[in-house]
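Hi support team,

I'm opening this ticket because the web form for multi-chain structure prediction keeps timing out on my end. I have pasted the exact lines I submitted so you can reproduce it. The total is 843 residues across two entries, so I didn't expect it to be a heavy job. Is there a limit I'm missing, or should I split the entries? Thanks in advance, R.K.
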Amino acid sequence: MRSPTAAVIAIATSLLVLISYFVPAGPVLAMRSLLLDWAVILAAVAGVIAILNMVGVHFRRVRDNQPLAPYSLIVVVTFVITLLAGLFFSPSDPQFRQVVTAIQVPVEASLLAVVSISLAYAALRFFQNRKGLMAVTFAISAVVFLLLASGILAGLAQVPVLGTLLAVLNRLPMAGARGILLGVAIGSLIAGLRIAIGAHRPYSG
Amino acid sequence: MTDIRCPICDTLNPPDAEVCSNCGTRLTYLEGDSDFIDPAEAPELPDWLKSYREGDEPEPEEPSESDDWLESLRGAVPSEGMEPEEEEPAGFEPGKPVDWMARLANEPLAARSFTPGEPSGKAPSTPEEPEASQPEAGEGKEQPGEAGFARAFPEPEGLAEQSSAEETEEDSTWLDALRGGPSDEEASPAEEKAPEPEEREGSEEADFAGARVFQMEPDPDSAWSASAGESPEEEAQKNGADIPDWPVEESGEPLPESQPEYEEQPEEPDLAGELEAALPPAVEEEPPALEDTGPLAGIAGVIPGSSAATRFTPPPAYSSRVVVNDKQRLHAALLESLVHEKVAPAPAARERRRSRPAGLGRLIVGLILIAAVLLPRLVGPFASQLALFPPETIHMREAIAGLSGSIPPRVLVVIDYQPAYAPELETAAQGPLLDLLRMNARIAILSTHPAGPVLADRLLDAVENGADAFQPEEELVNLGYLPGGASGLQAFALAPQRVIQSTFDTHRFPWQLPAVSGIETIADFNAVLVLTDSLEGGQAWIEQAGPLLDGTPLLMVASAQAGPLLLPYQQSGQIDGLVSGLVGGGYYSTIQANPDGPALQRLSSYQAGLIVILGITLLGSLAQLAGSRSKSTRSTGV
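Hello R.K., no limit was hit. The queue was backed up. Here is the completed structure from your submission:
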């Protein structure tokens, strides 16, 4: 949508919301609240559209008998059952909550644990295959910071030399995190300004 | 008015007739005809033209019977009912030939001017054709067309006599010329004296005869030439014809030397000689030679192989030696040495020795890990030796303790994590939540994840066991799911009552319940506790709700993954307290003086499993290092 009307609306909206932070007057705040309400409603509609798209993709896989059709069939059937159960019982029903507490939480937590094991194994294979300075550095840093984050070495913090060394090592992740956050903040600022002045138009496709 | 005479058939028609009554020809002009001019409108003509026209257009007269020529014609025309075939030409008597026919009968046949291509006696297509055809008709061999023509248009008597007389005279003239030879006048060249019409006719006849003679094959036995007893050239010379040179050349026979006329005309160029000289010399074809050697000996017309072989010489011999300089020779030697260099074959890889199944080792490792994780459950937590507490955890504890001044405190708890992170975050958040419940805080739960409302119930169910005085019906309200991400969060921070209109479980308007009554903005809460598993979720609350909190403490319980990234916000004062992961929960439990809390138990299991994993990895690395060293020792033989 390369319409200038869309660009005008987007720029005006962004400038209005930005001004409301610097000039928190009554009309400006009311306008900002109205725009945000619209945004919330549109986001909810977008969520519904995303759900329908997901179901449509898996339904087409089942219909076309693609290689992953059995899994897609499970997804579609499960979705239908959950939807019907939610409509019949409502999400606040204690029986329906078991869908989340007894199925979703254990499954997702187990998958996350498997992911952590896979990452550890991949790091080990990397160390075996790419023997070099970087590989050795990666392996040593992984082991050290695992030990530091686990709190195993917390009892050594009172040892004069080791305590200082552990304090220095604990600062390293925070230093890296600050660098990452600064980069993210600057990038977000530039992206917001580009959208506000119309230089970047993600809404135009 | 006078009658109108038809311009076509001369038929007289009435004056008012438009078309001829005989032939249908139109007699009057049509209107609009451009050629028609009304006499009344015509301009006045001069006198001379009028007189001329009057004289030119005489009055029609009645046909008079005194018209001599017409009468003579009509007299010559046979009367009606008389067949034209029965009319005989003038001077013709049946059974008696005419004089010219008699003369022709006595005349030699060669003297007649017949073409050789028509042996049947048909007359040539010459101006004399009528004269030649008429005798044939008189001999009773007339053609059907000719007979029809004669019947349709019989000649008048006078004209027939005149024509017969002229024919007789002409026939006698050219026949005499044939008999007696050309006269002096006829024998002279045409350019010297223009012949009279009669003489020219005879000359043309002679020319035609002479040309015909040269086209004929000289056949002494032929009746054409034998009857005359002379050669055609002599005959033509007698007729006084001017014979050109080209027929002689064409016939291929030289002119006879007995022709004095050609010899006496030196002024004429010898065209035949020039043409003969211009022609290429004739190639004389040799008779096919007989082969005298080989298997084809005695056969004529074969390719003379023996003579051709003797004409060719063996091909010249060229030197195949390549001129190579020193540099090229050096490069060639280098390439040759590379090609012939012996490469030692690599030793074949030995077959890997399988001592035991790979699955057994993995099973042993798995069993060891499970035992390490379950060990704290059996022997009690051993991670209680955390002595130095992190500052963010201490600030969290102080911020929650500071809420005790407001009775009862109203706290907004935000569920912003996925079910996968529920075990970690529930464990880490149990300490702060337990403190809140113990001080009878009013808890309002808001979820920014679809599964958040259910996870919140699960969280509070785990915490309620440690807070006996907590009454969920009065002190707890689940506001449900807040969509829209950062925008929804911003909207909720500005006007919570407009965004959330119903509770999650009771479907009632929440803002009249005791837990959240009197809340107009997010700043009306005494504290905001955010449980998040990602940096983006924590940032959204810091950036969107932080400026509107107006002094309300913003506390966070983050996963171990997002904690280090959110720690700078705590250090900068944008977050009042932070608990990061199991370790942070363990620290908080330690500060809380709750050694039996789930955080310390799970932290002990986590630390035990981590130690085992690191130990196995270290042992495996040492074993592989030792194995590789032993391999290198065996390979080098040292």
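A quick check on our side: Chain B touches chain A through 55 residues (CB under 8 Å). Let us know if the file doesn't open in your viewer.
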